[in-house]
Amino acid sequence: MINRIRNCLLLALLSLLVFSCKPGNPVRSDITGYSPVMAVRELMDENKQYENARSRSTTAHAPEIRAILDRGYIVFAMTAADQKPFFYREESTGEFIGLDVELAYSIANRLGVKAVFNRNSATSDGVITAVTNKEADIALSRLGLTSRRAELVRFTQPYMVFRQALLVNRLEYAKVGSEDRLSNFIINFRGNLGVVANSYHHNFALENFPSATVRSFDNWERTVDALFNGDVLAICRDEVEILVISAARNNASILTKPVFIGDKRESIVMAVSADSPLLQDWLNIFIDEYLLQNKQELTPARLVESHFGGL
């Protein structure tokens, strides 16, 4: 009798594990063998079965979810410009990959509908507008939380959280201090600090480094060039972008030094329409499960390593 009960419990546990690891919420147990291209290919192949799927909604579904199931597809808004490693075209194959792409296909597969991407927005604010105008169901575009955006849409819980960071030009800093005192120097930063104009980090720099001379540039590429050219002492952005420079730029580890600010963090979230509270709840549950199963992958360092090669 005891053995029968034990066997029943074991079967129930195995069933629970199989259900929690169903397609659309991939588990990457082999971290060293993880390939961003293969991950998206598998999810995309699974999603193809839903291209001509019939409606399966019932009156029991929340209106916003019922609308998605009735039409048979879900629309994700992303900016027109690639944001590697979150969403981008892979150079050799042209395939659309990245963390946000994986999440999009996983969400669509979990719902049993086709994934559609709306990339008509030039800016992150445009992605928010796409959701408010009902041109997309979910904004999934490396979005950061802002109070102004929160007046327009509902945000999910974060699926990634970054520290803020500076990248310092070693040669320029050597003129004003020694590396063993760099942490103290950052606290009272003085000198030219590069940021992208009208960005979150522009305001962040003004608020947190009042003694700095904040210099703004049209885009991130020009900001980075200013650092390597010695036009600014340091540049400011989140740790993912700083790690990307270290991985992608020649001699970055020799010419620059990253400084991470542990008590200043930025949450990366999804957004839905203000009148979609149950879709927001559904996504929060999805994110909980996704984070539980992929926590080893969802770190800034691992994300950059997967999409840019070694750090």
Walk me through the structure:
This protein is an alpha/beta fold and 311 residues long. Helix content is 43%, strand content 24%. The chain has 2 domains: 170 residues, Periplasmic binding protein-like II (D-Maltodextrin-Binding Protein, domain 2), CATH 3.40.190; 105 residues, Periplasmic binding protein-like II (D-Maltodextrin-Binding Protein, domain 2, 3-Layer(aba) Sandwich). The strands form 2 sheets. Strands 1, 4, 5, 6, 7, 8, 9, 10 and 11 form a 9-stranded mixed β-sheet that branches. Strands 2-3 form a two-stranded antiparallel ribbon. Helix 2 runs parallel beside helix 4 and helix 11 runs parallel beside helix 14. 34% of the residues are buried.
Q: Which range best describes the helical content: under 10%, 10-25%, 25-40%, 40-55%, 55-70% or over 70%?
A: 40-55%
The biggest beta sheet reads: 9 strands, mixed
Going by helix content, strand content and strand pairing, the class is alpha/beta
Radius of gyration: 22 Å
Give start-end ranges of low-pLDDT stretches: 1-33
The arrangement of helices and strands along the chain is: HHHEEEHEHEHEEHHEHEHEHHEHH
Tally of structural domains: 2
If you consult CATH, what is the topology of the largest domain?
D-Maltodextrin-Binding Protein, domain 2
State the end-to-end CA separation: 56 Å
Summary of the model, kept short:
With 311 residues, this protein is an alpha/beta fold.
Please write out the topology.
Elements: H1 2-20, H2 36-47, H3 63-71, E1 73-79, E2 88-89, E3 96-97, H4 99-111, E4 114-121, H5 124-132, E5 138-144, H6 147-150, E6 153-155, E7 160-169, H7 170-173, H8 182-187, E8 191-196, H9 200-208, E9 212-217, H10 220-228, E10 234-238, H11 239-248, H12 252-255, E11 256-273, H13 277-294, H14 300-308
Parallel strand pairs: 1-4, 1-5, 8-9, 8-10
Antiparallel strand pairs: 2-3, 5-11, 6-11, 7-10, 7-11
